[in-house]
Amino acid sequence: MPGNVHGLRGNTPPLSIAPMMNHTDRHFRVFIRHLTRETLLYTEMITTGALLHGNTENFLRFSKTEHPISLQLGGEDPEALAQCAVLAEQAGYDEVNLNVGCPSDRVKKGRFGACLMAEPNRVAEAVSAMRQSVAIPVTVKHRIGIDDLDRYEDMLDFVRAVARSGADRFSVHARKAWLSGLSPKENRNVPPLRYSDVHRLKAELPELSIEINGGFTTLDEALEQLKHVDAVMIGRAAIDNPFLFSEADHSIFGQPAQAVSRESVVSAMADYTEQQLNTDPQCRVGHIARHMLHLFHGQPGARRWRQFISENAFSKQAGPNVLIQALKAQQNH
Q: For helices 302-312 and 321-331, what crossing angle results, to 10°?
């Protein structure tokens, strides 16, 4: 399977779904692909240590239907990151992304994630090593700042330093991160959003590909942001209201409108669930169904849908027909 099959280098997809731990696994990505073919998807963050010394094949596994897809790495050692980038390219990923935005204690102890914003030269060295090792794009996801290193000028210095190493895109979470005093969840909500800083970054460095992330819940909001930046990354809304992406290929990417129904998605995912149960002894219905809990967000019967899945999909005995039964429960709410 060749890397970069979607030609991502020099061609920033205008919409992506953020990498999210415990959420953007391969089952989530297959589910989302029934709603949008064009939106760039990410893996969960995978540390270099896990990829190089753990179950490498399992970490890298994905299906061809998931393209375009980016592998997000967590790490700080340039040599290890370069080795992992090569593995990503060999596995067929369309790009590789370096996490410089996660503020969790586990990440800090490993000296990677958001704390690396204080070491722009280290990040530049890592990106350079990856760029020299692979032909697929190498991108960076980061915050607007950390702790007291949170002036616009601090972010500008960071981006300029890393840009010199050849990073293909900067995905900027428009909130700073407090490395002490706030939990990862609080760091997603408590620090104020500063969209204007990201807009200014693009205006002052127009030659760079800049993506904005943070707090977006609708495609209309994404379209408004695309007046200022190259791309928009949506995070939690992809979990809370995944069906919003059913309009993405048309409204964001300019593809011909295609009618996508929730019912057809349920049917397709029931088939996928059956296939997974037959081929993967570790797979359970709940591993897949949990990503679909909010498929009927805002629709009649949504509560019954969630309730049926919550009560029936997570036992070891659950079969693929749970999704079809949940659909009937939703329709007969």
A: 150
Task: State both tokens at 4.
Answer: 């970069």
Distance, CA of 312 to CA of 286 (rounded, Å): 9
* 69 touches 42 (CB < 8 A): yes
Three-state SS for 200-247 is HHHHHCCCCCEEEECCCCCHHHHHHHCCCCCEEEECCHHHHCHHHHHH
Q: Which residues of 236-267 are buried (b: 16+ CB within 10 A; e: fewer)?
A: ebbbebbbbbbbbbbebeeeeeeebebeebbe
Strand partners, 106: none
107 token code pair: 């990440």
Tokens of 153: 């000028």
Token pair of 332 as six digits = 């007969």
Residue 30: phi, psi to the nearest 5?
-65, -40
Look at residue 285 and tell me whether its pLDDT is greater than 50.
yes
Q: DSSP secondary structure string, 19-33? A: --TTTSSHHHHHHHH
Residue 2 pLDDT > 70, yes or no? no
- The half-sphere exposure of 303 on its side-chain side, counting CA atoms within 13 A, is 1
Other residues' Cβ atoms within 10 Å of the Cβ of residue 172: 27
Res 109 pLDDT > 90:
no
Residues that are catalytic: 102
pLDDT digits (tens, 9 = 90+) for 185-218: 777 777 889 999 999 999 999 999 999 999 999 9
For the chain, the first-to-last Cα distance in angstroms comes to 45
Q: What is the mean pLDDT of residues 64-74?
A: 97
Tokens of 118: 């204080």
The pTM of this model reads 0.93
Coil, strand or helix: which one is 311?
A: helix
Tell me if residue 149 falls in helix, strand or coil.
strand
- 11 C-beta neighbours (distance < 10 Å), count: 12
106 pLDDT higher than 70: no
Note whether 12 and 231 are within 8 A (CB).
yes
